[in-house]
């Protein structure tokens, strides 16, 4: 059976067999499943669904078609459960730069395989690449040895590891970016002054079962013993509805159990960016601020929760309260910052940027966004902030495309805060001339009301 025939079978609503799913994954990797047919597959899964058996088979096929690691045996000399952490992608999400050194400082071995991000969802390796000298393409042996030596390393996922996941996500992000273009004009409206419903087509972009197979497949390819996923939902995420995010989370946990692994899923609000900084160098700077005990509460809180869930999965804490408190203490005491410094130095960077942020890439251009009226801010639209970053050069459309590490946005105000007319709401910066459309896009992310509102919770739920 050809890979295209497998897609046709799913379009008819038929159940796929394991060998058919493997043939389809092979087609994704060897190019015999063209992009148009890959899009057809995503649509078919959105309409027809995948059973749990199909999803598990697809995750395994994605993991096994390509190079693999076996961290359980490769790091058998390092005590502790090897927990894999992955995110479905968010705007301003720098929590890995905080949570990973914090749990490593507590003795949990952290072998983090990270992929490049697409669209406004930069990966950890993209952010770390903004640090002058940092090397993430360090190779398997150096990666494993560093975990053995200091308990923390990051390696950029090789293109040969779970390549089918890359192919599927590339097509999904093409659709995601097309939707951004349709949904958000320069003014962020539909031409009649109304902001469109970004969730109208959101669930079709990444069906929950397909998302589980893709992201779990990446972790299985690395051979982690426990699986943690940070599921973003909202205007700046692949999942626009909480129903889809919850379906993803619950399926993630069920399949983890079937694989004989502990699993957990943290459902996270992505209607507005995390923290005040968006863009790779900006986010590194803010992560350091959090590690120094001075950063935004939402970034600190989410980092503590994700780190706490890693400790629970590793069975080094008995309750979430104990786990979160231990992560907080690692940050408060400075142990997490010291581990972060050791980490970046071991991977080739000069850690002087920690005390001298000006050593990070600096922009040459800026656009300041001012408030056009006074009022109370509604959630700052993460989709529009991400779209502005993309236009300013701070995000990529293809995995092989460069991005400008100096490009970013600083949000001076966020949800529930009062602002006066003329006050600066945000600053958009870049290493190249900033298109007017990017500044207009960022300006339209700020909407106001004349009523007081409550600040939204960052963590919506945890499924385990």
UniProtKB/TrEMBL annotation:
Domain Pyrimidine nucleoside phosphorylase C-terminal: 376-449
Presence of the UniProt keyword Glycosyltransferase in the record: yes
Catalysed reactions listed for this entry: thymidine + phosphate = 2-deoxy-alpha-D-ribose 1-phosphate + thymine; 2'-deoxyuridine + phosphate = 2-deoxy-alpha-D-ribose 1-phosphate + uracil; uridine + phosphate = alpha-D-ribose 1-phosphate + uracil
Record-level Gene Ontology MF annotations: 1,4-alpha-oligoglucan phosphorylase activity; thymidine phosphorylase activity
Cofactors required: K(+)
E.C. no: 2.4.2.2
One Gene Ontology term from the biological process aspect of the record: pyrimidine nucleobase metabolic process
Keyword Cytoplasm: no
Assigned keywords, A-Z: Glycosyltransferase, Transferase
Family stated for the protein in its record: Belongs to the thymidine/pyrimidine-nucleoside phosphorylase family.
Annotated Pfam families: Glycos_trans_3N, Glycos_transf_3
Official protein name in the record: Pyrimidine-nucleoside phosphorylase
Function comment: Catalyzes phosphorolysis of the pyrimidine nucleosides uridine, thymidine and 2'-deoxyuridine with the formation of the corresponding pyrimidine base and ribose-1-phosphate.
GO cellular-component term (any): cytosol
